[in-house]
Amino acid sequence: MRRTLLNLHLCIGVAACAFLTVLSLTGAIIAFENELNRVVNPQLLKVHPHGQALPWELVRRRVEEATPAWRVQRIYMPASAEDSTYVRLVSRASGSTDEIYVDQYTGRVLGRKQLANPLIWKIHELHINLAAANTGSEFVVWSCAGLLCLALTGLYLWWPRKVFRFRTRAPFARANYDLHRSLGFWSSAVMLLFAVTGLNLHIQTGGTLFQMMDAKATTVHVPGHGTSVDELLQTAREMAPGAEAMRISFWNDQRPVLVQLRFPEDHTPAGRTNVTLDQHTGAVLSVVSSRTAPIVYTALVQWNRELHTGTILGWPSRVLMSFYSLLLSLLAATGPIIWANKKMAAIRGRRLAAERLRVRMTAEQVPANEEH
Questions:
Q1: Could you read off the pLDDT of 203-227 as tens digits, one per residue?
Q2: Which of 62, 200, 278, 359 is the most exposed place for a label (fewest CB within 10 A)?
């Protein structure tokens, strides 16, 4: 049993090492994605606050006046007064989308996302789908499944053994083995966490998240304050007192207006509280709140992401999860080295056995020749 699990552990580690290394390095970086993006693209993501921000309805009108071929589909509320407003547009003719940044104090369009420095966004894309859309996403899912197997088999293989000692003067192969075994054992809980939450996030990315939220929504019939952006936001806030509006989406006549909100204890980017409103009257249609939904809902849609990204406790947990993410690349490197060392040792063993057999056969042939 142990030998079978060891071979399985080695095979999965070798097969997944390249993918896990990419996920490890990119994960460590995007733990600080927003901060890094502000450094890389300050001309788009940062504004100079002066006075009060414009009403959101006025911001929408100025954006559509500046881009008449497009209409505003979604507005992402800035996280701070110094952050610009991220707006998604949809073409009135083709239905294609574009993304821009807007100064909420003037309504001026700062620029298009596709013309910005894409470094951090590309790193994010590498992490979630290896920058290869659905095909890459499948590889990421299998890599998470592989990490789950590695963590579980590693725990079983090394649980009863000493996993906190290093031979300081051991040969490289032995030191590499000790390092992999010790780091793997003591980080196994976090690696399990990465694997399970990563798998769940990929399931949610396929559309399951909104299905889960819709399933927990409560149908209500409450008159709203109107259909302007500000009136819709006011209505949504009243339905979730204490929550901050993070995004508002306009789907034309395809779907109701969706306002996504976030309570202070919710550290997901868009929040896990939704209010849908009638686009023609502003009346409330349904509400799902992360505070009143079942605990299973909160665990799957809120805590899952917070644990995976490390945002659950703010900066300390983000730094910790970034460190463990980097640690995964070290495990991904030392594991295949163990496999390679085993293979080379086996080759050396076979060569040594062959040499011994040759020497023995030569020795046996010498007396026979002397008899003649």
A1: 888 777 778 788 888 888 899 999 9
A2: 359
Global pTM value:
0.86
Residues 6+ positions from 167 with CB-CB distance below 8 Å: 174, 175, 178
Please check whether residue 151 is in contact with residue 188, taking contact to mean a CB–CB distance below 8 angstroms.
yes
Q: What angle do CA 239, 242, 243 make, to 5 degrees?
A: 75
What CA–CA distance (Å, rounded) separates 45 from 82?
8
In the block, residue with structure tokens 């589909």: 73
Tell the burial category of 307 from Cβ atoms under 10 Å away from its Cβ (0-12, 13-18, 19+).
buried
Read off the pLDDT of residues 109-123 as tens digits, 9 standing for 90 and up.
Answer: 999 999 899 999 999
pLDDT at 102 over 80: yes
| Neighbouring C-beta atoms of residue 200, cutoff 10 Å | 20
Angle at CA of residue 44, ends 42 and 46, nearest 5°: 55
User: Which domains are present in the chain?
Assistant: 1-41+120-206+328-346 (no CATH), 45-116 (3.10.450), 217-292 (3.10.450)
Mean pLDDT taken over the chain: 91
- The full 3-state SS of 154-194, as one line of letters, equals HHHHHCCCCCCCCCCCCCHHHHHHHHHHHHHHHCHHHHHHH
Backbone angles phi, psi at 24, to 5 degrees: -65, -55
